[in-house]
Sequence to fold (459 residues):
Amino acid sequence: MSDRDSESDIRSGRLAPEAYARNFADAHPPLAPNQALIESDRCYFCHDAPCIQACPTQIDIPSFIRKIATGNVKGAAHDILKQNIMGAVCARVCPTEVLCEGACVRNDQEHKPVAIGALQRHATDWLFDQHIQLFERGPDSGKRVAVVGGGPAGLSCAHRLSMLGHSVTVFEAREKLGGLNEYGVAAYKVTGLIAQREVEYLLEIGGIENRLGQRLGRDIVLSRLRQDYDAVFLGIGLGGVNALGVDEPPVGVFDAIAYIEKLRQARDLSQMPVGHDVVVIGGGMTAIDIASQVKRLGAEDVTIVYRRGPENMSASSKEQAWAQTSGVRIKHWARPLRLLARDGMLTAVEFEQTRLDSQGRLAGGVDKFIIAADMVFKAIGQMLIKDGLDGNADVLELRGGRISVDAQRRTSIPGVWAGGDCVAGGQDLTVAAVEDGKCAALSIDRHVRAISKTEARHG
Ligand SMILES: Cc1cc2nc3c(=O)[nH]c(=O)nc-3n(C[C@H](O)[C@H](O)[C@H](O)COP(=O)(O)OP(=O)(O)OC[C@H]3O[C@@H](n4cnc5c(N)ncnc54)[C@H](O)[C@@H]3O)c2cc1C
Ligand code: SF4
Fold:
C-alpha cells in the first residue's frame, strides 16, 4: 500500500478515447434468442418455486420462463411487468444472487442457478423493441392522487393507480423522471437509454401528469397536497448525505452520489475529472459503484475502506468481487481519523484499524496507517430530507430517521402513504421500491373507493 503524500492530480481525459466506451460497456450483455431458449430449458418449473418467494415483487418466474421456452415471449413479458412494471431495469440491476437466483434449486445441483435476470431482460427488451403496450388505464374513478417523487417507488405507484382508473399528478424535483435508475445506478448496468425507455413505456398508459422541477418543501408542502388530492404518496428517496465526521479540506472530498449523478448525465465521459489516487469510504452499493466507475475512468489507485468485515458490507459478495475484478482494492476493519492536506488540497487519509471490543461494539485500535489520496469519496449512507413533510396538525412518524409505514405503506398521517428508500425497514433496492409503490397504490385504491361508498351512503 502506498503511503506517500501525493500531489493533487485530479483531471479529466486520463484514458484514450476508445477506452471509455470499452470500460462502460454493458456489464452483462443480453442473451441471444437461442441462448435464451437453452437457458429457459434449465428451469425445473418447480411447484412452490423458491425463486418466486425470493422476489420482492413475487413475479411468477417458472411461468415466464416456461413461456420463453415455448416461444411466447410476449406472455413472458406480461407475467413480469404485471408484477413489476420496472422489470426491464430490475433485470439489469437486481442483486439476483441474493434474491431469485440465490434461491434457485439449481444451485444445489450445479452451483449455477437458472439465469433468471438475463431471461427477464430477454423478455422485456423484446417487448420494448416490438413497441407492444400491454397495459391500459382503468375506467375513470374521479379520484386524484398526488405522487411526490418520480423514482421507482413513485412511478410504480402512479402506474398502478392509473391501471385502477385514478388520475395521478407526479411532483418531481428534478428535470427528468426515473430517480436513481436515471441518476444513480452504475452506468455499465443501465447502458443506453433503457431507464428513460422504461419511463416512457410506463407513462404511455395515460392519466399521469408530470410536474417536473417541483420540490416538496420548496414549491409544494404536504398539508396543501392533502387538501387538494384524495390521497398522497411520498416516494422521495433519501436526498441528504451523511458527514464523514472529520474535518474536510476545501478541495478533494466529494459526495459519491453527486459525482455518480454527473457521470450518469455526462455526454462525454472523458470530461469527468478523476484523481490519481482515490479513496472511497463506505461499504454499500454506492461505495462499490463509485470505486468501480472512477477506476474505469482511469484512476490509478482506488481503495475502498470499510470499518467492518466483508460479511457486514451491504454490497453483496458478487458486487464486492465485481469491484475487485475492476481493479479496486477493498480494505476492511479501518475508519478515517483525519484528512491530510497541503495548501487546502487533499493529499492523504489517515486511518485507524478497527475491531470489535469484548461487548461486540466497534472500537478503534492502536494501529494507524496512511493512504495517499487526491480524491476521497463519501459513500457512507444517505438520509431523509424532511423539508415540507408537515401535515397540518398531524405528525409524520419517523423510525431511525426514515418514514414509518405499516404493511400497506400507510404513514401516521391519514391519507398519506410512502414507499421506497424514504421508508424505514426497506431493502434499499429498486425492486423493493417498485413493490412498495404497487402495494401503496392498491391500498390507496381501497381507501378512496371506501370513502366514495361512505359519501354515497350519506347522500
Ligand atoms: C449509487 C447507487 C447505486 C445503486 N445501485 C443499485 C443497484 O445496482 N440495484 C438496486 O436494486 N438498487 C440500487 N440502488 C438502490 C436503488 O437505486 C434505490 O433503492 C431506488 O432507486 C429507490 O427508489 P425510490 O423511488 O425510493 O427513490 P429514488 O430513486 O431516490 O427516487 C426518488 C425521487 O424523488 C425525487 N425527490 C426527492 N426529494 C424530492 C422532493 N422533496 N420533492 C419532489 N421530488 C423529490 C428525486 O429527485 C427522485 O427522482 C443504488 C443506489 C445508489 C445510491
Ligand atoms: S427455483 Fe430455479 S429451477 Fe425452480 S422454478 Fe425457479 S428458476 Fe426454475
In short: The two ends are 77 Å apart (CA to CA). The longest strand covers residues 345-356. The CA atoms of residues 74 and 127 lie 6 Å apart.
